[in-house]
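User: hey, got a sec? need EAL domain-containing protein folded
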Amino acid sequence: MTHQLDLADLKRMLGINLFLDLDEHALMKTRQQGLVCTCLGLRLASVFQPIVKLDGAVIGREALLRASSDATGELLPNKAFDLAVESQKLVQFDRLVRTIHLLNHANAFDQRELLFLNVHPQLLTSVSDHGRTFEQILHYYSVPITQVVIEITESAVKDDARLEEAVNNYRSVGYRIAVDNFGSGHSALDKLFHPRAGWDKPASIGGLPWLTRVLDLRPDFVKLDGEVIRQAESGTAAALILHRLVSLFHEAGTQVIAQHIETEQQAEIARNAGVDLLQGHYFGFPGFMETEPDRSDRSGPLAA
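Assistant: Yep! Here you go:
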């Protein structure tokens, strides 16, 4: 089920619930990109990349920001958020982006899907009403809070009581939590294990503080960085380590998403490792509407 948006009603509702003046942000409906708006001199739009089960069925989508300006052209999402930080408008910018994502998703896709939303790390530790303002928009569109997954990058997972408090606040309201880009910045999978322990024996978790911090957050999902899968392509030993890593998360009650999957071989490696869900260009490109990957130069879709 999708919702048709009345722009005048939408502006009134957002003004009341989010204290946003949508006339100031030039909110408009477009045919190609749905709702778009402007902020900090940037044109902001949404695209969505599917997250699929092992049989290819879509269970959710990650909302991704597309920002551009006449002066700079396309701007990477993290650069757009950096601009918001520099302008001391991070809270306003984040609320606006998340709202546009939600409304575009509600208007274009089945709301029974999970919606994965990224949150800037600084916002997690600088506000106290985590997700509660956003709840008003969810209620207005009858979107269960449990359908929204808050993504936190692994690099933000540090020994910080404020981060743990933020995660617990989100969870207490009903949001699900995902740790994104797990493994990014770690040069090899074997760092997860003692070098002399053998390929099939995990290291003491106490000796891996960065992994322990992620497990301590008890996320609903962990999204493996593409580098993790690429390293697992290097041979049987690395693939066994990946399998054990996935098992560690499963033992903690966390589902594992392999992202940045670009080939059938990578998809097979991820499946063999026991991951729960898959994301990447092999299964669908980021877009405003449904997009089909081009597999013309591959041996065919992954079998269910």
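Quick note: The two ends are 26 Å apart (CA to CA). Let me know if you need anything else on EAL domain-containing protein.
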